[in-house]
Specification:
single chain; mainly beta; six-stranded mixed sheet; five-stranded mixed sheet; 3 helices; 41 strands; extended
Length: 636
Amino acid sequence: MSTTTNFKRIALVAVAALGMGVLSSAPSQAVIPVSSLSITASATAGTAAAGGGNGAASTAFPGAVSDSTTGATVTVSFLGVTASTDSVSLTIAPKSKPAAAAAYPTALFTLVDTSSSTAIPAVFVDTTTPGAGMEVGSVSQAPKIGLESGTAVRVASSATANRYYTASFKIHLDSATARSAGSYVYTVIATPFYAGVTNLGDIANVKSEDVTITVSAGSTVASSVYSKAVMNSGTSFSGGINDVDSTVSVVSTAATTNRAVVRVYLRTSTNTSTANESVTVVTTRGSVGSTSGVAIGKNVTMQYNTSQGYIYVFVFSDGTAGSGTISISTPSVTFAAKSISFYSTEATKLTVVNGSPTLKVGSNTMTALTLGTVWVKATDANGNTVVANADGDSGVWAYSSSTTVVSDSGTACTYNSTTGYHHCSLTGVAAGTATITVANLGTNLNAATVKGDKTASVTVLSSTPATLSLAFDKATYAPGERGFIYISAKDSSGKAIAGQTLSNLITSSGISVTKGSITGPAGATLTLDGSSNTSPTTSVRVASIDTCDTLATGEAVRCITFMAPVAGGDIEITATGGAGLPVAGQVAVKASAKVTDNATAALAAVNALAVTVASLKTLITTLTNLVLKIQKKVKA
């Protein structure tokens, strides 16, 4: 075999297999020169940090990010005689690991330098077994420094023959497999591939060298920066480390079923591994435990689960109502206290809000949130909201003083978690007035132990609209201020009718802006025309709950939000009563308001100030003259 032929068959490929974390040490080096058919291999030991792993705790803390910058350096050099065909490969085989390690980490190669070559080599990266024919992705005749990582690499000659090719790689440990402290030994295998021969190595010239990577034990101390405790209401935890605590208000009745769950994550200062510290939990109300369904006590120390990456703290009610604080700490970290409210199942106070003083004949659930007409805040002796009684009923019932006007007698009111109130829907029977009383008993008002702090007076009105009514919620607006337009109807006596859908209240032309210029929120086009306003559904508005919260008078309206113009002047809207009204009501109605002019107001203020200053000047002059006269008389 000629020397030329020998040179043409040279090759070297680099492969790394086994990954489990991040190299944290300064680079070590393994240099493998290749000359003719002779390959020599040498390697220097490296180190890595403990941690990694994407197991059960992957949703909370993924494994450590692999670190190619601190990996060991491997350099491959060879003489490529035949253009585009000679190549070299490296493979790595696991040899030994610490007894505690369940698996070998995967070693990855990242290209970092080709500057020592006399010609630019072709560098290929793959996760398969390397060979002369291995070529993957976009890494071809122009190597991409630091952009490709894989378990195998190949360095091949380019289009230029008889050139030296050199490529340096960082070898680093992937983070997929959890690492145990100790020494990991791998065998680096260098294999040449000849020109024109695919997937056939020169077995006689295959060389090997052992590489040792020592993984340090790392810190086990919890860090306040990366550790976290998150609380969810309910029997199970559904969040993650980036979630925030949910509001927890639960029944105080003693039970083996937990009412809330706290997941505690402990991480070290590098955020690459799980800390290992005991967790102490102290609660001022209720009790806690480490297992669902088993309450232990109010002051409990738990063992942390390092393999899982977190532990659960289960919270139980013990029959005591009131607000509680849950304190969680480790020897190194103290978390912000968690708040929990245990409410009683028996109300001691019923606070009544009369949401709608006017009702229609039929069912009345009339607010914009589709809530009842009477609102009741039920609280226990500690002021905590009562959601339901022990039987699962509402805990609040409504009674009418005149069932011929309002038929309700012991009607259950429904709790709404958004408002924190029980809402009582009432049924009007005939025109008239009735007094509504709420109580904590649904079978006999006289036998109830708790009644509302006041009664609610309601009037059942005719449901027949006679006239259309338009109104702005204010008479004057600042430039650009948000405002509301109210659409409602009145009966023949001029009283506002109860909330309902008013068919054909407005003609098909809808509502027109006849003065000024108003828009929707954020500059959106204000659509005042269309069926939504010609046949509006009117509802009672309740302060601080509904969007249109400035009209909390109990009048049933449809509300449209608008933005006042930035310039001062008059604004006006006009609409004509539709076919749903009697002929006498099918007339045009208007609503108007003013927008203040900042410049005019400022000028008026300046003018007023000027007048005041002039008056003061005159007064000062008069007083000065008076003093001079007095002085003259005194001297005389």
